[in-house]
Amino acid sequence: MEKIALIIFLLFSFVFAEENYSEMSTQELIEIIGYVKEENQQSFLKELNSRIPKMSEYEKAQYEKRLSGDITQEEQIEDEK
């Protein structure tokens, strides 16, 4: 009986689990622009928009490049190489 309850709990936790973008660094958020699943877009954009005023000039430049598509998939932000 305990095993069944555990399995049901795990299934529900996976169904209702959501990405937690607040635990990601600003660099990581910038890197995944364009790769976030549609169902997670709202929480991703909320977190990203809350960080824009606090971004360094370098992060803002990387953010703008990512939005404009100037960074290819193979390119990485310098700090992550």
Automatic annotation (TrEMBL):
Family matches, as InterPro entries: DUF1104_sf (IPR038310)
Name this polypeptide is given: DUF1104 domain-containing protein
